[in-house]
Amino acid sequence: MASTPGSLRDLYSSPPPDRTSWRFSPDPANPSQPATIPPISHPSSNWTPVVVNSPVLDASIIRDEHSVNANLVLKTVLASAIMQYTTSAIAMPWEVGKLLLQVQWVPNDTIEAEPEISGEESDTEEVDAELSDSSSETYFQEPPTASGSQLSLSRDSRRRRSQQLPTRPSRESRSLRAEYVIPIGPTDGVWGMIKRLGRSRNEGWSSLWKGLLTACVTDAMSSAIQPLIHNSLLSIIGPSPSNSHPLLIPVLSHLATGLILSPLDLIRTRLIAQSAIPAYKHYVGPVDALSQILREEGGFKGVYLHPHLLIPAILENTLRPLITLGFPSALGRLVFVSPDSHFAAWSCVEFLASCAGLLVTLPVETIRRRLQVQVRGAAKPLRTCVQTRPKPYNGVVDVFWRILSEERSEPPLVYTRLRKKGKQPEKNRDGWYSSTGLGQLYRGFGMGVGASAIVLVLAAIAGNDDRNMGWTEL
């Protein structure tokens, strides 16, 4: 059995002579030598670069203040552009459908609406046959045994029957509408406009992505310019006004960004509204649209400072951030809810605030789209794929009044599919809402509510994940 040392002193061995050691007291063997501390090398003398993997396209960056990885910068910009383009492409069909509904002119004296079906007109033709038979009896035949009272009664019954049944549009009325115009259909929202646009012979499904490049560039430039303007205003104005009025700088930054990018928004509206038929297409692309607008409509002064473009741009770019940023907080203080105290209740408050904000922003957006489609100066009228007002508007107030007084929310006569033989077509019942243009000011309201609901669900899921993560960490 091996013997163990009696003390720990026997286990001590002096360090090798080449190892640097710390000595805080003089050496007993040489008391004249002072205490020494091993020298510490300067970080710049033996610095080695640290390589960190980047999640963007599996790129790597070298953290050095004197070197820049150009490959990483290029890949990052490319990935951001692809993501921005994909996001815009997904949302573009709904934006196109909403914009076409906003610029579509539905006059109050509309007496026809094309049927949704094509090629299956046998049922509606039977209705026409019944009307034609009744009219032929009136003008070309006279029953030999019919008395005057019976004849007047038959005429009254035929008149009442003709008033109950919608008549097919004549060839003359259909010829008045240009071939590149999509006929007015039932008011079934943005999704209905998407289907009508895709099924149109002149437009097609590719028209759902008209103006995609311009919209993508506008969104990317807005995301880059708005923070720069915000920081510049914060440095100029100072923190004291921003603390007393927290919405001042954000609203001003969004307003300045919207005014700077207003020509791009004008180009996007024109590209979406114009017809896709090459013979009637006014602009080939965004560059051609910008050059023609600057040449024919007063240059940059006309694009930025014309009252029909400047006033709606100021209204929309002021009200939208003001309602988005300020209305949820005001509504939360009204119901005593804050994002820190009640997360679920705050999500509902944001949803209600977003829906209420649409009641203010959609009419302003509709008025701005109507005035953007309207050309100025020496430019030729834009041939749009939907029916627009033949006479130009005179301003923001005129657009608002004309929509309410001259248009209607629903077409008065809508042809329905007769699934059973001999079924009577339904007759529209005009009310105060249908006979006025109030619904024209809120095209896209359902789409906005649906988008807010999706945001609410995603926020609830993210909140549950955060709470579960915090519980597991505890």
Summarize this structure briefly.
The chain is 55% helix and 1% strand. It is mostly helical and 474 residues long. The longest helix has 34 residues, at 70-103.
Task: Note down, in words, how this protein is organized.
It is a single chain. The chain contains 15 helices and two strands. With 474 residues, it is an all-alpha fold. It has a domain of 260 residues: Mitochondrial carrier domain (Mitochondrial carrier fold). It has a two-stranded antiparallel ribbon with strand order 1-2. Strand 1 and strand 2 form a beta hairpin. Helix 13 packs antiparallel against helix 15. The longest helix has 34 residues. The C terminus is likely disordered. One of its GO terms (cellular component) is membrane. It is a multi-pass membrane protein. Pfam families: Mito_carr.
Task: Describe how the helices and strands are arranged.
Blueprint: E1 51-53, E2 60-62, H1 70-103, H2 122-140, H3 148-164, H4 171-176, H5 189-199, H6 212-237, H7 239-244, H8 248-260, H9 262-273, H10 286-296, H11 299-305, H12 307-334, H13 343-373, H14 396-406, H15 445-473
Antiparallel strand pairs: 1-2
Organism: Sistotremastrum niveocremeum HHB9708
Keywords: Membrane, Repeat, Transmembrane, Transmembrane helix, Transport
Solcar repeats: 244-330
Task: Report the count of strand segments.
Answer: 2
- Strand-and-helix sequence, N→C? EEHHHHHHHHHHHHHHH
- In terms of quaternary structure, what is this? single chain
Given as residue ranges, the uncertain stretches (5+ residues, pLDDT < 50) are: 40-63, 111-154, 158-176, 414-421, 467-474
- Overall spatial form: globular
Major pleated sheet: 2 strands, antiparallel
CATH topology of the domain at 189-412 and 431-466: Mitochondrial carrier fold
